[in-house]
Amino acid sequence: MPVVPATEEAIRQAARALANGGIVAFPTETVYGLGANALDARAVAKVFAAKERPRFNPLIVHIPDIASAETYGVLDATARGLAEAFWPGPLSLVLPQREGSGIADLVTAGLGTIALRAPNHKIAQALLAETRLPIAAPSANRSGRISPTTAAHVEAELGDIPAMILDGGPCQRGIESTVVSVAGHSPVLLRLGTVPRAAIEAVLGRAVPLAREDAPIASPGQLERHYAPDTPLRLGATDLHPGEALLAFGPNGPSGGVQTVNLSPSGDLEEAAANLFAGLRALDGAGASAIAVMPIPDHDLGEAINDRLRRAAKAR
Ligand code: TXA
Ligand code: MG
Question: Looking at CB atoms within 10 Å, which of 44, 57, 215, 311 has the fewest?
Answer without folding.
Answer: 215
